[in-house]
C-alpha cells in the first residue's frame, strides 16, 4: 500500500474512530458522574428530612425523585417535605398529594402512602378521593378509626347521610364508651331529619350503656337542652357532676352548659329551676386537675371560667395551682397579664395548655354541634 493511501486511511478512518470512541467514553463518564450526583442528592435529602430540615430536603429529594420515580420511600419523604414548606402561591398540599399518589401507584399496598393521602385529602377537602382511600384502608381493617372518620366526613359532604349514620354506628361499636362517635351518630341522625327530642332519646340510650362516662352524660345534657327539656338537662349535668372528666373537652362543654343553664335560671318564670349548678363545678374540676393528661388544661379552663364571671381571686387560685404543677407552661404568663389588667382578652382556653384536648377543637366532623 502506498504511503499516500495509508495516510488517507489513517486520516479518514482511524482518527475519526478514535475521536468517536473518546467522545463516547466521555459521555459514559459524564452519565456516571450525573448518576452519582443524583444518588448523593438522595442521600443528603434523606438526612435533611430525617433531621426535620424540610426546606433543605425539598430540592434534594425532588432532584433524586426526578430520576427515580419508582422509589416509593423517597417519594413519600418528598410529599411530607412539600407539605411542610409553604409555597408563596399556595398549593403545597395538592403537590404533596400528587407525590403520595405516585408512590401509591408504584406500591398499592403502601400503608404510609395511604395514611398520608388520608390526611392530605381531608385537609384539601377532596372528598371523592378521601372516600376511595378510606375504603381501601377499611378493606384491611373494618374498625380503622381514622378511615371510618374520613369515610363519615366524605359521606356527609357528598350528601350520603344514611351511609354516614351507618359509619357513625360502626365507630361507636369500635370505640365503646367514647363520646366522639356519639356526637357523630347524633350529627348523622340530625342530617336525616331527626327532631331534637329524638336526638335526646338517642343520646340517652347510648349514655345509659356507659353510666360512668362523664363526657357522654354532658352530651346527653346538651341534647336535652336543645330539645328544651331544661330540667332534664339539669338532672343530666348533676349526674355528670359526680363523675371525673377524662378529657379537657368534656370539662369545657360542661362549663359552657352550666353557664347556659345558669343564665336561663335568671329569667323570671324559667323552667330551669333554682339549683346552683356552679356548686358542682369545683369538685368536678378538682378531680380533672388530679389527672395527668387534664391538669394544665383544667387550670386554664377554670381560670377562664372564673375570670369571665368576674371572680378574679378564684381565677388567680387556679392559675397558681397550674403553675405549681408545671411551671414552664406558657399559659401562666398569658394569664398573669390578664389578671394584672394588661390584657382585656383572656387567652382562648386551653390551647396553650393542652392543644390536643381543646374543647370544641373536634377532630371529627360534626362534633362541634354537641
What this model shows, in words?
The protein has 370 residues and is mainly alpha-helical. Helix content is 71%, strand content 0%. The longest helix is centred in the N-terminal third of the chain and has 48 residues, at 3-50. Residues 349-369 have low confidence and may be disordered.
Element layout with pairings:
Elements: H1 3-50, H2 54-67, H3 72-84, H4 92-106, H5 111-124, H6 127-140, H7 145-157, H8 161-174, H9 179-191, H10 196-209, H11 214-226, H12 230-240, H13 248-265, H14 281-289, H15 295-308, H16 312-325, H17 330-339
Helix pairs in contact: 1-2, 2-3, 3-4, 4-5, 5-6, 6-7, 7-8, 8-9, 9-10, 10-11, 11-12, 11-13, 12-13, 13-14, 13-15, 14-15, 15-16, 16-17
Helix/strand order: HHHHHHHHHHHHHHHHH
Helix tally?
17
Rounded to the nearest angstrom, the distance between the terminal CA atoms is 103 Å
Q: Give the uncertain stretches in residue-range form.
A: 349-369
Tell me the β content: under 5%
User: What is the rounded Rg?
Assistant: 31 Å
Overall pLDDT, averaged?
A: 83
Largest sheet: none
Using brief descriptors, characterize the structure shown.
71% helix, globular
Quick summary:
It contains 17 helices and no strands.
Amino acid at each position: 500500500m502506498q504511503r499516500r493511501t495509508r495516510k488517507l486511511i489513517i486520516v479518514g478512518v482511524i482518527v475519526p474512530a478514535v475521536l468517536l470512541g473518546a467522545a463516547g467514553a466521555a459521555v459514559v463518564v459524564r452519565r456516571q458522574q450525573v448518576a452519582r450526583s443524583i444518588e448523593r442528592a438522595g442521600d443528603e435529602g434523606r438526612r435533611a428530612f430525617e433531621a426535620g430540615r424540610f426546606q433543605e430536603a425539598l430540592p434534594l429529594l425532588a432532584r433524586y425523585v426526578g430520576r427515580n420515580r419508582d422509589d416509593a420511600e423517597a417519594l413519600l419523604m418528598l410529599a411530607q417535605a412539600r407539605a411542610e414548606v409553604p409555597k408563596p402561591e399556595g398549593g403545597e398540599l395538592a403537590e404533596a398529594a400528587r407525590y403520595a399518589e405516585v408512590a401509591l401507584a408504584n406500591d398499592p399496598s403502601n400503608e404510609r402512602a395511604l395514611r398520608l393521602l388520608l390526611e392530605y385529602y381531608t385537609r384539601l377537602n377532596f372528598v371523592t378521593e378521601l372516600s376511595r382511600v378510606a375504603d381501601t384502608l377499611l378493606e384491611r381493617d373494618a374498625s380503622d378509626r381514622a378511615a371510618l372518620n374520613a369515610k363519615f366526613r366524605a359521606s356527609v359532604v357528598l350528601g350520603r347521610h344514611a351511609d354516614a349514620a351507618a359509619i357513625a354506628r360502626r365507630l361507636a361499636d369500635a370505640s365503646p364508651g367514647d363520646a366522639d362517635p356519639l356526637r357523630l351518630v347524633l350529627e348523622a341522625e340530625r342530617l336525616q331529619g331527626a327532631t331534637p327530642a329524638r336526638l335526646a332519646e338517642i343520646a340517652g340510650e347510648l349514655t345509659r350503656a356507659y353510666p360512668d362516662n362523664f363526657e357522654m352524660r354532658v352530651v346527653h345534657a346538651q341534647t336535652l337542652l336543645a330539645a328544651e327539656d331544661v330540667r332534664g338537662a339539669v338532672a343530666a349535668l348533676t349526674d355528670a357532676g359526680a363523675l371525673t372528666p377524662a378529657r379537657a373537652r368534656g370539662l369545657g362543654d360542661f362549663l359552657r352548659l352550666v353557664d347556659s343553664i345558669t343564665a336561663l335560671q335568671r329569667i323570671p318564670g324559667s323552667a330551669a329551676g333554682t339549683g346552683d349548678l356552679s356548686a358542682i363545678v369545683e369538685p368536678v374540676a378538682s378531680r380533672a386537675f388530679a389527672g395527668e393528661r387534664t391538669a394544665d388544661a383544667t387550670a386554664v379552663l377554670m381560670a377562664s371560667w372564673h375570670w369571665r364571671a368576674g371572680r378574679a381571686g378564684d381565677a388567680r387560685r387556679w392559675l397558681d395551682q397550674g403553675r405549681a404543677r408545671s411551671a414552664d407552661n406558657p399559659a401562666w404568663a398569658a394569664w398573669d397579664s390578664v389578671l394584672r389588667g394588661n390584657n382585656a382578652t383572656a387567652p382562648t382556653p386551653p390551647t396553650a395548655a393542652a392543644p390536643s384536648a381543646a374543647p370544641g377543637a373536634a377532630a371529627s366532623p360534626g362534633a362541634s354541634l354537641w
